[in-house]
């Protein structure tokens, strides 16, 4: 090859290298997104195991581009602080109960707090899926608070758990009763009990110190929180059943995700909700056997006594609609209650 040919070839190779390098440099370099998630539940809870699966699936399906770091038992903040923690950017995700925030999230809080309005875990799943799909006001409420709702967890029926046996309405008179939200305290007062607001981490100590005499709790949570050490009597009346803590992400964090990642997270979230339902049901059966071995006694609460309590309660649905009418959202509330009536005849 002559000198001129060598120069031309050499220049061509250099130009090609520069061009390729430029093209490579022009490709966007993806920065891994890490989302901190604060859960109010202990790691041993069945819902927490679903959260682990959810986080792992998101990381897997995004090829490692989105990581959710889970912190259990309120490690990054107390349950009542989660809303502000997300708003401030201290955390991106929270597994928190809307019933703790009735003023800010009244429409979400209703299914999470209205007592004696559902009986089964399956009803809670159907209700929340329909409400999220058919009542846009729920999404609007979340956005007003800088949030996006991803999915709801479940709880097994909250039975009456007391330090002493209670088998009728009269037995509730004078009892200090753990409550949350706005509706459950009224149900306590309806049978002569004194409502006491406690967050989940405070329940064990509340029973131990006598702050409360009774709590509504599911059998699997009695095991998880070792409530059997301080209260060994469970009465077979469903005080509350419904969706529990939802998994929320701040809108700021959500809007920073790519559309592709958003789609993946929504898909995994819907799958997680069904998976959580199944895990919750399985936890109930195992917990009852465990509690029997630990010396916990289950008591019948006759149907006529259950009906007495229901009859003594205010009309929670009417109260909810009246409250939402005052906020200009009465039509959405009526739609919610209509769907509720179809799910729970």
Automatic annotation (TrEMBL):
Coiled coil: none annotated. The keyword Cell division does not apply. One of its GO terms (biological process) is transmembrane transport. Residues 1-31 form the signal peptide. The keyword Signal applies. Keywords: Periplasm, Signal, Transport. Its main location: periplasm. InterPro entries: DctP_fam, TRAP_DctP_sf. It comes from the Bacteria. It holds the Pfam family DctP. One of its GO terms (cellular component) is periplasmic space. It is found in: Periplasm. NCBIfam families: TRAP_S1 (NF037995). Belongs to the bacterial solute-binding protein 7 family. This is 2,3-diketo-L-gulonate-binding periplasmic protein YiaO. It comes from Roseovarius albus.
């Amino acid at each position: 090859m002559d000198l001129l040919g060598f120069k031309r070839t050499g220049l061509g190779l250099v130009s090609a290298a520069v061009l390729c390098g430029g093209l490579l440099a022009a490709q966007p370099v993806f920065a891994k997104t890490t989302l901190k998630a604060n859960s109010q539940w202990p790691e041993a809870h069945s819902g927490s195991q679903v959260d682990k699966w959810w986080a792992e699936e998101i990381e897997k399906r995004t090829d490692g581009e989105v990581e959710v770091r889970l912190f259990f038992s309120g490690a990054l903040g107390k349950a009542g602080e989660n809303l502000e923690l997300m708003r401030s950017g201290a955390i991106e995700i929270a597994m928190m109960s809307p019933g703790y925030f009735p003023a800010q999230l009244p429409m979400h809080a209703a299914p999470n707090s209205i007592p004696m309005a559902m009986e089964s875990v399956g009803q809670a799943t159907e209700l929340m899926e329909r409400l999220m799909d058919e009542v846009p006001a729920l999404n609007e409420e979340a956005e007003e608070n800088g949030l996006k709702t991803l999915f709801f967890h479940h709880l097994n029926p909250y039975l009456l758990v007391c330090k002493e046996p209670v088998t009728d309405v009269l037995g509730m008179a004078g009892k200090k009763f753990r409550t949350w939200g706005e509706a459950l305290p009224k149900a306590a007062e309806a049978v002569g009990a004194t409502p006491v607001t406690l967050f989940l981490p405070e329940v064990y100590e509340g029973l131990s110190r006598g702050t409360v005499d009774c709590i509504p709790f599911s059998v699997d949570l009695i095991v998880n929180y070792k409530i059997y050490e301080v209260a060994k009597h469970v009465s077979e009346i469903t005080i509350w059943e419904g969706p529990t803590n939802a998994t929320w992400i701040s809108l700021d964090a959500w809007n920073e995700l790519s559309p592709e990642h958003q789609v993946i997270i929504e898909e995994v979230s819907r799958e997680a909700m069904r998976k959580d339902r199944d895990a919750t049901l399985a936890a109930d059966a195992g917990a009852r056997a465990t509690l029997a071995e630990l010396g916990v006694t289950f008591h019948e609460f006759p149907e006529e006594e259950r009906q007495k309590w229901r009859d003594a309660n205010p009309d929670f649905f009417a109260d909810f609609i009246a409250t939402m009418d005052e906020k200009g959202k009465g039509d959405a509330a009526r739609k919610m209650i209509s769907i509720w009536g179809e799910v729970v005849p």
